[in-house]
Amino acid sequence: MVNKQVPRILVMLLLGIALISACNALPPLPQSQTGIDELDTIILTVLNGSTSDLIPLLGFTQTSCTLAEGLGGPPKCMEGEKEGTPVEVLPFLGPGEGSFIRKRDIGSWSGLDVSELYAAYQVSDKAYSEKDYPTGDYALVFIDSINQGGITLQVRNGRIIRIDYSFGYPPGIPQDNVIKYLATPITVVP
Prior knowledge:
Blueprint: H1 2-23, H2 37-48, H3 51-54, E1 61-64, E2 86-94, E3 97-102, E4 114-123, E5 138-144, E6 150-156, E7 159-166, E8 178-183
Parallel strand pairs: 2-7
Antiparallel strand pairs: 1-2, 2-3, 4-5, 4-8, 5-6, 6-7
């Protein structure tokens, strides 16, 4: 009699564990491919974590430097540069501020530290853009490994042309910025 009860108890225990596990399942991760080769190459390179492999995928904005003081605007002129000197930069946007890294200084850039792709979408013309902070045709949104915020890569013609940082999880994606999703955002479970 004991031998017959043990398998039944074991089966019931395993079914209970399976049921509890299903109720607490994590949301599915988004696909890590979009079906667009140039975006999929960037996604895989970013997830690989190699800055040296990422640098050739950067596209620099050609603009002019300024001597004006204060936050925002075009990149600041370096010592010895005159107002309006042409420079090539990669723009960065964060909450309330923007900055640039010059092409000549990109070798000192530490790259991106991300844990996963959060979403990918085609960017609408309503997304924030200006001469020195251009928007891409596509946006790839990753989760920052360090502070769990969002890192959005603006992509045009297979090149990352701007990097945006945001705080908080999940990363906020203004719906007006999206024409269509290529990789749907991760579902957030409270």
